[in-house]
Design a protein that fits this description.
The chain has 289 residues and is α/β, with parallel strands linked by helices. The protein has helices spanning 17-29, 49-63, 78-87, 108-121, 132-135, 141-150, 164-173, 188-194, 208-219, 223-232, 234-241, 247-255, 272-285; strands at 2-4, 34-37, 69-72, 95-99, 126-130, 154-159, 179-182, 200-201. The protein has a single domain (2-221), classed as TIM Barrel, CATH 3.20.20.70. It contains 13 helices and 8 strands. It has an 8-stranded parallel beta sheet.
Length: 289
Amino acid sequence: MGVALITPFKNDESIDYDALARLVELQIKSGTDYLVVCGTTAETPTLTELEKEDVTRFVVQSAVGRLPIVLGVGGNNTKEVVERLKTSDFKGIDAILSVTPYYNKPSQEGLYQHYAAIAKASPLPVILYNVPGRTGVNMAGETTLRLAKEFKNICAIKEASGNFTQIDEIIKNKPADFMVISGDDGITFPLITLGAKGVISVIGNAFPREFSRMVRLALQGDYFSARQIHHHFNELNQLLFVEGNPAGVKSMLAVMGFIDNKLRLPLVPNTIKTYEKIRIVLNELNIKC
């Protein structure tokens, strides 16, 4: 289980580095296998370039080699992404996660050429990220397989299309060392039964010990025990995204006392109604962190 770290903010919208340090320590002590920095869940579009660099440096220094770090490096301007890959200092970073271009809505050939340019420029392994619900474009299974077979440093895909037929096609036909990673907490268990190798998780911010245990049990073939934990989290997983990510997980972390419930516009916190539902479910679950 990798965890897509949130960016905690203070009430004045500055980054709360004390809270971020606590969250990193929680992940390290609770069984998380790697951290994803400056991904979607981090509200990265609302961070300045300097803030992105500072957050990345802070997490790398806080983890101090105790966990691998994956850094989000993507965009809808291929030339700009390639230039960043060629010129950035990736000390302490183990791989990059690169989302499909958003807004442009490129063709499948355009997606292939975009990632081919990234693979040729990247000094690190590349994890593809397909999340059509956010980007407006789906990367077809055929395109993913083409990239996986042609570029050895493209090592995995975070699949968040929710299309089981497409994901199963990738798992069936992929190179042996190419990993398919769930990009959706709610379907992680069934995807592992199909052959996925884990998850880049949102809910893992709040429940790293419990959710990583579910992932490990499923990977070990103990589907009965893993399914029990999967069902345990069903209602929370639904509440997680009912008003957008990371509003849901920030509400959870605020209820648990880890952070202030603050987001940057255009994102806003959950409504009181949803916040109270989350609080009630958390109390009913009585999960100890």
